[in-house]
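User: Can you predict the 3D structure of NADPH-dependent 2,4-dienoyl-CoA reductase, sulfur reductase? Sequence below.
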Amino acid sequence: MKVIIIGSVAAGTSVGAKARRNREDIEITVYDRDEHISYSGCGIPYYVGGEVDELDELAPRDPKWFKKRYEMNVQTSCEVIAVDALQKQVTVKDLQNGDEWHDSYDELVLATGAVSTLPPVAGTEKKDVFSVRTIRDADAIRTWADGPAAKSAVIVGGGFIGLEMAEQLTYRGIKVSLVERLPQVMPGLDADMAFRLYKHLQEHGVDVYLGQSVQAVTGEQAADGVTIDTGEKIAGDAVIFASGVKPNTALAEEIGAEIGVTGAIKVNTKMQTTVPHVYAAGDAAESFFQPTGEAMWRPLGSTANKMGRIAGSVITGEEASHRGILGTGIFKMFDLTVAQTGLTEAEAREKGYDPAVLHNLKPDKPPYAGGKELVIKAVANRADGKMLGVQIIGEQGVDKRIDVFATAITFGAKAEDLFHLDLAYAPPYATTKDPVMYTGMALDNDVRGTAKLITPKELDRRKISGEAFQIIDTRSPKQFAESAVDDAVNIPLADLRSRVTLLNPDVPTVTYCNSGTTGNAAQNILRNYGFTEVYNLSGGNKNYQMMKKQTS
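Assistant: Sure. Here are the predicted structure tokens for NADPH-dependent 2,4-dienoyl-CoA reductase, sulfur reductase:
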């Protein structure tokens, strides 16, 4: 059997490696139009910033290594320019000398990846205009950044790579301006969580322009900035487009393979396309959201490796199936780690769920052990309590918690199940009631209706619509004087029982403290005194004040 793989980054090499582990009697040929293979695209910002010293560290394996280790024939600078699915052959062009030839296959794998998308603006051909996708891109940006003229840069795009590039260039002393056409950075987060990142960027000296598109790259021969929708010019010695990627589906379309609703190549759980003997894996292929089965496309190296392994297994006769993804992602931005898995609140509502929403502000470990606050936004389905998604922002301990949440959602956990997890505890690592456990407990209380939550956004919406609330600030008078929820009255928790007769038990009531715990205690007291509708403000006053900044 002869297997041809088109593409040699995460998915392509994983296909070949798994196929070889299973069988020695197959011929494996890999073609790639690039000169670099099996490289870490996610590491590019860190090479640009100098945290990775040598470019070779991003691409430690070359064709000789794969030949020796897996008896794979990897041919670089060789582009597959055509596929004949009926004759089961490909046409290959050597990009160095122009030679062309045909090669036959029994099974073909399209691991063609994704390509950077440049907006249709004038001036992108100018010197010092870069994309962020390949090893060549990394080398070009680093060469520019190492030069004496690198004083400022405009980054176009506020996703993972754009924010990582903003961080790394800032660390190098380069003034960064970031332009994002959407009204928030990180479109994969809810707006209230993304706003925290926006503020953090500003605190580190990054100028952020939201809801603005680049109209043109300015400058004569070389870029000297961009103009945006408002007509304003933003100066920059370089312009770096990190505005997204799209699946590379050209060959798939040429042979009539079906393209999915996401724009990526449609595959089944065996990674098979709709064309016989043709598979697709990695950033070119469509995945699906594990809890619902809906089509999903998330171009991540971790997913590409998984898909490639499954394709290699199936091709060699091993039983394997792709089980879907949650869109789990994580990245670092200055002092913060940001992570997300599953559905956001906005996505859950769009899909017809009635979501229970919690903002849980808790330290990752006891403050006396150096704990730092985590902001956890968790979403569960009110109908059955099943966890739908989680977003976390914090200085430490984020990676541990997001992986627990992702595992729980994968196996269909309900909010109540999180509290019963037997998680590791010792003061250097966690609190006795881990933030994951507390999240489950508070969400479950809301789902059951025993201790209801209300988000600052929902409270504001209902007040604007004319609903009347009693809002009780349970903190000290000093804290209340410093900042408080609009229209709140200050009744410290210790005084609540003695002053409860001053309140109307039939009026909807909201209790709050700084972050939620004391507010919940007050909520329980009022419930026990017969108050019929009592909410604890999700995330407390801290979360409310952040919302006010966002909407001001």
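The mean pLDDT is 96. The longest helix spans residues 301-315.
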